[in-house]
Amino acid sequence: MSQGLNRIALGTLAFVLAGVWGLPFLYSVWTAFHPEKYSATFQWDAPITLMNFVEAWQAAPFGVYFVNTIILIVTILVANLVLCTLVAYAFVRYRFRWAGFLFGLVMVQLLISPEILIVENYLTLSRAGLTDTILGIALPYLTSAFGIFLLRQTFKVVPRSLDEAAQIEGAGAWRVLWTVYVPLARPVYLAYGLVSISFHWNNFLWPLIVTNSPEVRPVTVGLSVFATVESGVEWSLVNAATLMTTAPLIVTFLVFQRQFVANFMRAGIK
Amino acid sequence: MKLNRTSTLQAVMGAMLGAGVASVQAADLEFYFPVGVNAPAVATIEALTNAWAAKNPQHTVKAVYAGNYEETTTKALTAAQAGDPPQVAVLLAIDIFTLVEEDVIVPISDIATSAEDKAWMSSFYPSFMKDATFEGKTYAIPFQRSTPVFYYNKDAFREAGLDPDSPPKSWAEMIEVGKKLVVKDANGNVTRWGTRIPTLGLGGAWLFGGLVVSKGDVLSTDTGTEARFDTPAAKASLDFLLQLAAEGVMQPGGISWGDTPKAFLERQTASMWTSTGNLAFVSENAEFDWGVGFLPGGDGPGAPIGGGNFYIFKGTTDEERAAALDFIKFMTSPENAAVWAIATGYVAPRPDAWEMPEMKAYVQRLPQALVALEQLPHAEREFAVFQRAKVTQYLVDAIESVLAGSAEPAAALAAAQKKADEVLKEYR
Amino acid sequence: MNKRLSLGMAFVLLVLPSSLLVAFTHYPAVRALANSLWNNATSRRPSRFVGLDNYAALLEDEKLLQVLINSGLYALGTIPLAIVLAIGMALLVNSRLPATSLMRLSFFMPTMLPMVAVANIWLFFYAPGIGLASQILSSMGLPSVNFLGSTETSLVSMMVVAVWKEAGLFMIFYLAALQTVPVHLKEAARLEGAGSVRVFLDVVLPLLRPTTIFVAVNALINAFRLVDHIIVMTRGGPNNSSALLLYYIYEVTFGHRDFAYGATLTVLMVVILGALAAFQYRVLDRRTHYQ
Question: What's residue C2's pLDDT?
Fold first, then answer.
């Protein structure tokens, strides 16, 4: 009996929490699909419209922003996968002087992420003439301590016997990496890829600092310029733009949700 | 998208006219502009920019919307520092000192040297040219200039038994009238405030300058090396803001610039103090009868002059400068000044623009548009000094801390004064 | 078995990839230290060596003091709250209640949104008088709150935004951890007569400890790293009540164009993060670190 009551109480709590949590987002959805005059006045029979999306899409070059973001995240992801794999492989498979110290140096980036160093990184980029380029946005992120850490953890548990067997069959360092280590780390690559994509899709401060022109702005910067409060742009348009710019990510995650959780478990992040 | 169209157009033109066209002094302009008011500003600017490009097929121009004023100045400065400045930009008039100090702009009077050019430069209202000049040189051309005005809901005035045709003129009247305009619900919570003066951030500092002017003082002088925070006028202005909150006329705490027009349209406030640049937005969206008046003043009318000017950047070729000058002339021509003023509510910066037929029709349709112009003789330059961003922040901090109740007006202003002097003494 | 690293391999595997890391992590940190010893040069002020002047300014900077207090409160406020909520959410989603997938969606959705988008959503949500928050308050007969415009509430409002955005991500980690809790342990505890609260505290919570450490470290780094919402929503105001350290660095450097002081503040930030890392390393479980 009291079990049942508990369950009802717990259910109510869950319902309320989930409801409250969803409220700001639902509010945003509501304003995005209704004319501006209903953005602060709730009326259940308010007319539903898609015009906000059309208008927002036409008011700013969101298509360009999307393309920029995709180029950016693909560049970073590819570089990360390759470079982090190489470094992790070196730390796991080889013995060399200062290995522990060097690994510590790499891990410094986990703590002092590129955002912390915007001042000097901006000056570096400015001297190199790479501000206002997509490469410039990507550069500080091309190697990732987090990626190196994850892959090193994964490679460490690759059975030695597999490595040795491959060598006996005459495989060189590259072949061993490609045929033994990489396949076993596949779930980790997928999990890392999802994290990297969501991080760089959402990244804002650094791209804001290094970009000037719309041709290189990623969606986050484009959205913030579009939604500049001082210009008092209509709420319904801002919310439509907000949903529009995040929709691809939301869809990706809804599709990969299960793999995401499962892979994180397997990746040994606990 | 637009860029592609222009450059395709140019390529086609080039192909049609043959190689000979290459010898025409062609320039590719990049043009940064901010938006600081509720208006279809981006679309209008792009339309004007495209019109110039169509008229000048040998040139291209790319209009870059870079956010609010502060962000646009930051972008222009960082781009200039990286060696890739825009050729031309609309930036805050008061950023002239920063731009000169960072050594990123050229005096327009060094480029516009012909007699015709000089006549053109003297065709603008002198009050707008005053803050375009430094050390005897003209660095800027007025474009989106404004003063704040007092917007009020006439229906609310009628409801409260007030004369809808006589908005408050003095601070005392503002408080008296404001009290009558406040509406509360059954629980005693305010559902409509008497007035709304943005007090947060840069917008807050701008309006504060108007309060000080109406008390017969200014926040800064023309040299750009003097900040006048610790004055009786400034103190009286802070007291007035505090009194508005204490008397229940205005929402206590800080009030943001961006939300203000929305709050007015949603009838959350019966009146608001904001830029005349919001006129088009209010006129389009207000579902009630509304009017515009001078800002109520302390000892008479007073307002700050604000807004943005055109600047031409260093690191540009002579061809680019010539093209930029031509572009600015086009954008500020009487016809286009009228187009811009009508689309936004900004004060057309030259008398002959007001003589254009469409402008006359506009003023007839929307007489509220004249108020800012009529207020101009009572207006003074907005707070402008070297290290503007940093020193304005001291003022912003003072205003915000007083309104938050965490500092006394006199002490806060004295502290801001001390910090400002510390920064500015190097420039004297 | 570990092989010796040949010079060529070392170059390809280590030097080449990590040169980028060094160029954008170690080099700028050192460079910030060097630049903090110079003044901020402009066309009207020649560049000169000023020694520790910038650090002296640091000590006298009242605004910095406020910023540091804000940052501390922000970290202390958001991290535990996000963790507790994340555990709660994970338990609910992991329970046998109906509609858990809808719940998970509701909790996880904010995590997928960029902070800029989150900030936009909350900006309207918070708008005094007209936003949904005010409308809810007024329907309950409460006065509207000037969330972002008053010094008492602005920082807390920012913290709420951060927790809303992050708790869902942390929930995922806890969900993953909960699914690894062996069922027989819980059943054994139940057989000994423990209630569900006891089972949670004695059996489940200790097993979540590594997750909590991982999540806490992440949350701590984010508390210092993520200021997008401050830029969009309050610009540190009113009266600096919501300014965090990284926002202050951004404002000083790119707003006020004081690169020298920006570099000095960067050094301070690095020192603070280093101190936190050292503290964490000593106090928290050593084994969970880079062994």
Answer: 65
Asked whether the beta carbons of residue B78 and residue A229 sit closer than 8 angstroms, the reply is: no
No. of helices (H) and no. of strands (E), chain C: 15, 1
Q: Which helix (H) or strand (E) holds A235?
A: helix A235-266
For C:45-64, CB contacts with B below 8 A are 45, 63
**B264 and B201, same structural domain?**
yes
Helix axes A219-226, A62-93, angle to 10 degrees: 140
Residue of C nearest to B198 (CA): C149
Average pLDDT for residues C78-82, to the nearest whole number?
96
Nearest one of B60, B99, B98 to B313, comparing CA atoms: B99
Q: Is the ipTM of this complex over 0.95?
A: no
- Rounded Cα distance between B100 and B387, Å, is 11
The CATH number assigned to the domain with range C50-288 reads 1.10.3720.10
Report the C-alpha gap between C168 and C259 in whole angstroms. Answer: 37
Residues A116-120 have a mean pLDDT of 96
Question: Based on the domain organization, do B271 and B289 belong to the same domain?
Answer: yes
Q: How many CB atoms lie within 10 A of CB C8?
A: 8
Same domain? For A66 and A179 the reply is yes
- Domain of residue A15 covers 2-50
The whole-number pLDDT of residue A256 equals 76
Report the Cα C87 to chain-centroid distance in Å: 18
Do A40 and A142 belong together in one domain? no
Q: CB pairs below 8 Å between A and B: how many?
A: 81
* Mean of pLDDT values over A143-162: 92
Question: What is the span of the domain harbouring residue B260?
Answer: 148-304+382-427
Residues B53, B98, single domain; the answer is yes
CATH number at residue B169: 3.40.190.10
For residue B18, is it left (φ>0), alpha (ψ between -120 and 50) or beta?
left
C132 in contact with chain B, both atoms CB, cutoff 8 A: no
| pLDDT in the model for residue B19 | 37
Asked if residue A159 and residue A75 are part of one domain, the reply reads: yes
B24 by Cβ neighbours in 10 Å (0-12 / 13-18 / 19+) ranks as middle
Residue C285's pLDDT is what?
54
Looking at chain C, which subunits does it touch, using at least 3 CB pairs closer than 8 Å as the criterion?
A, B
